[in-house]
Amino acid sequence: MHKMTFKTPLAIAIAAASLGMSGLASAQMTMEQRFAELEARIEAAEQRADAAERRAAIAEQSQLTAVATESDAEIEERLARVERYADGEEGFSFNVYARSGLLIGEDGKSENAGPYLTPAGGEGGAVGRLGNEPDTYAEAIFNYRMQFDNGAKALYRTMIADGTTSSNDWTGGDSDINVRQVFAEFSDLPSFTGAFENASIWAGKRFDRDNFDIHWLDSDVIFLAGTGGGIYDMQLADNWKSNLSIYGRSFADYPIVDRENPGLEGDTDNLILTSNNYFGNWQWMVNGMSAADNNERDIDVGQTAADTGFHTMIAYHGDSFFGMGEGNFKAAVLHGQGLGAETKSLGSRGDLTDDATATRLALYGTTYIAPQWRIAPSILAETSEDRYVQGDKYNWAGLNVRLANELTQNFEMQYEAGYQWMDLDPQGYSGRNAVDGGFSKFTIAPTFKPEVGGFWQRPEIRLFTTFSDWDDDLNNYGASSLGNEGFTGGQWTFGVQSEVWF
Questions:
Q1: Which topology term describes how it sits in the membrane (predicted)?
Q2: Residue 119: which of 395, 500, 497 has the closest Cα?
Q3: What is the pTM (predicted TM-score) of this model?
Q4: Which of 103, 163, 334, 498 has its CA at 20 to 30 Å from residue 113's CA atom?
């Protein structure tokens, strides 16, 4: 008898079912014939199943190959996008500047202070900020960058800022929260050619991209901001890049000269047209201003407020420490007339006279003088006259040095010394008195960092002790912290502060 083999449980099930259905009708067939036929049918079915499995495997493999090929392209695109995100070329990013601390006088009370506490401070004369800041100030900058298939790029930015001198945790009643920037900027536009090939355009409210400052004084060298539009990086020649912009700033709610309607108030916009030019390391900036009807402002008896202005700046951005070693330095000379006599914050003051003139010098740099010692000196000075009334004079100059000794990976000692001389003759404007004298300060600040290494390395937490002294005559000015009761010279202050940026 032929030996039967059943290869799978499925074959057994099929055989059993077939036998049951055959019944008596299959009685004439021998048992051997029936099982031989059944086995042949089972083998044919198994062959068809094997062929189907092979076809399925081939189809699956083909599909996997297609998917793998498609995924490679997708993976490359995702990797490229991740790299753009990581480099900040695309997607959302968040930047911060913040400082907050406590400043206590020798009597145990909160102390009036700040980089602009001297009589010259009202005209932009900043002294060193280390151990001299009683406020909490924070900027939160939200960026979203896009890159399009044609290569064009877009940036959208919103900046929110707040400042207060209160030590409370809830300061909604006296804080100055404000949206300082809201703008869009487009770059790498493929339809831009020639001089505009690498140019970018923008519109909205913003800080100008090319502002720069002396950080350890908390003083901008030049600060251009407002609402408007412009274009950056026009390539006008091989060694000549140029920016062109128009900004608007508002002089709001000021008394105007109207004898028939005393107490009448007005407002106006100051329009600032700017051409900012770069020739290698050199920068030449020219600004023209127009504030229609600002001459109706009542600034003083017999005085006329300016409704136009001119401002210019020549600056050099050095890539060494004054040519003496590694580091950097910047030097700038600024001059303005009329509304341009506010040489730092362009177009921000409407109480300047037609005849106002001002010239300012800024000079600063940073370097290492030894492997663990770095230094950052600065000079800031200005002379101006006919500023608010005919015949007034405001002359001041300051020297500041920030020094740091990096002792461990997480700790350094910082020192700051500064001196400011001033000779101010306001001609009685706003009840101010003529003063002549000097102000000096010295600060020691043990400082902790996650990692030391360079002047711009943040965040950091500082403890500090500051000694300030000044000539008694400065207390008579009447429009600064030094004119307040309790400021007598030879004063100690103490405190703690954090400073963060990223």
A1: Multi-pass membrane protein
A2: 395
A3: 0.81
A4: 334
